[in-house]
Amino acid sequence: MKPDTIRAFDRYISEAQPRLTRVREIRERAVERIGAGKAEVPGGLIHDWVGAVFIPGTTLEKTLVLVRDYDRHKQIYKPEVIDSKLLARDGDTYRLHLRLLKEKVITVALNTEHEARYYRIGPKQVRSESVSTRIAEVERAGRPGEREKPPGEGHGFLWRLHSYWQFEERDGGVYVECEAISLTRNVPPGLGWVIEPVIRNLPRESLTNTLRATREALREK
Questions:
Q1: How close are the terminal C-alpha atoms of the chain, in Å?
Q2: Alpha helix (H) ranges present in 2-67?
Q3: DSSP letters along 141-190, please?
Q4: Which residues touch 156 (CB under 8 Å, ≥6 apart)?
């Protein structure tokens, strides 16, 4: 990961910020919606995916209790989240640790830390922003000789992750929308057949799985 790559990602987030933080109605009535865009930057790729689900028979408060129960994310969002822990809380700001497992052609484990902030924007509507503060790849995860690489080294399947959520209760349930913007390495010459399926598809699949797991966990409750 190079400084130019990080600067390009920060610039992308800065330019998108007015749109990302604007309060809007979640108009999607379908169970699931996925839209996307990708942008090439020096030494990397920015993936920008948005999805939404409707969860019938639940409430906004029950949804918030579930998504903020970070110690249980390893159960709710398995197998992609293999460990989770709330590190600290200050009002509506949460710091958390997640160990992520990326499996597609090859398997990569990542130790990640995030800061999530929640904003009440109405009696039935809340938005949140989650920003990764540290992402490091783990060699031999869960086995003897486990070792964490310095952030920015390794396969580069995830360097940065910003997630922007909206939760809105209406129509007998809760609409959940998430826009996930991530930074990965680009596809290296000569290794496209191995790396490209991972780089191109994992961000979309990760968002899809997160939305589905949230819906299923709330429907079970």
A1: 42
A2: 3-20, 60-67
A3: TTSTT-EEPPTT-SS-S-SEEEEEEEEEEETTEEEEEEEEEEEEE---TT
A4: 1, 44, 184, 185
Q: Which of 20-34, 57-71, 134-148 has the highest mean pLDDT?
A: 57-71
Report whether 64 contacts 27 (CB < 8 A). Answer: no
Question: Does the pTM of the predicted model rise above 0.85?
Answer: yes
Pairing of strands 147-148, 125-139: antiparallel
- What's the pLDDT tens digit per position in 125-172? 999 999 999 999 998 888 888 899 999 888 888 999 999 999 999 999
Give the integer Cα–Cα distance in Å for 54 and 135: 31
Cβ(149)–Cβ(138) below 8 Å: yes
Asked if residue 48 lies in contact with residue 181, where contact means CB atoms within 8 angstroms, the answer is: yes
Question: What residue ranges define each of the domains in the chain, with the CATH number in brackets?
Answer: 3-220 (3.30.530.20)
**Residue 140: what residue type?**
R
